[in-house]
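Entry 14. Two folds queued back to back today. First construct below, sequence then structure tokens.
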Amino acid sequence: MDTTQDKSIWPERHLKTGDLLPTFCLPDQDNTVICSDALLGRRFVLYVYPKDMTPGCTTEACDFNDRLQSISPEAEIYGLSPDSPESHRRFRDKYKLEFTLLSDPSLETIKALGAYGTKTNYGREYQGLIRSTFIVDRSGRIESALYNIKAKGHAERIKSLITGV
């Protein structure tokens, strides 16, 4: 069944402050499976982006990497896209990214986060990934959920939300 159009299965519901993060187990760039349950007790940023090696996604990843030292004492950073672990490994190596990239080719976790849905481009509606970022507290609850963000300058905004500066 094609679930991309079936809103009863994949409702376009965005997470909000206080919601529990949907549980997941996803491979990272090294094919190591990372489960959300293992992240309990840690504060982290999970940012969802469309595709490795594209201009906007590269800008966003490099911006997060450049701010890693100021964010990481407060929260870990995880990137999430539908790309394969192998693509993530190439992306991470090429740009010397120092944080974990998670792979969700089935879109199951991305959809559960509300980061996949109806988009409009030049008047045409279609289903696609919605660039989103979640700050998750130590108990697994959403502190901040940001949807439809712009890649440029976004990491600085997250840094301010995390550090209060």
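Second construct, same run, same settings:
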Amino acid sequence: MAYQRLLSVGFLLFILVAGSVSAQISTDTGRLKERKEAVREKREMFRQKLKEIRDKRKQAVVERIDTKMTKVNERRTSRWVEVLNKLSSIMERLQKKTDDAKTQGKDTKAAEDAIFKANDAIATAQSTVSSQAGREYVIELGEESAVRGAVGAVVNQLQQDLRATHKAVVDAKQAVMNVSGEVAKLK
């Protein structure tokens, strides 16, 4: 009886969360379209301002840096997605081992707590990585004499964002390592 109540409460919570998530997704889609349009406009302005720079060498360097920032962001985020997928598959195996130990009558409370924390860390890291993958870094050019500062500011922002995202992935990896240690204690 208590199990049925627990199951029905869990199902209702799932329905409520799923409904709010779908509503949030539809509003996020609208914001995403607006954001992409704004980035597209900024990129157009960047291209126009870039053509106004008289020094061809400086123009080529700025364009190369802009391209390189985009490639670095894509390369790093795709690598982190691979790492997080691998961590998720490891978590599935560790969950299975914990379930097997539980059926054998062993105390799995510490392992289950570690699994919960690791799954939360992986979800946070996945959210951070997907957010980072969606970011566009557009250099806002002003006067020709201020190009170096504008480029430097955008490059620094990219570096800070990549460091924060990397930290989230490392935290997820550390949490999975903690689960592995707890599961090893079950033997």
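Quick look at the second one. The helical segments are 2-52, 56-103, 109-133, 147-185. Confidence is low (pLDDT under 50) at residues 6-27.
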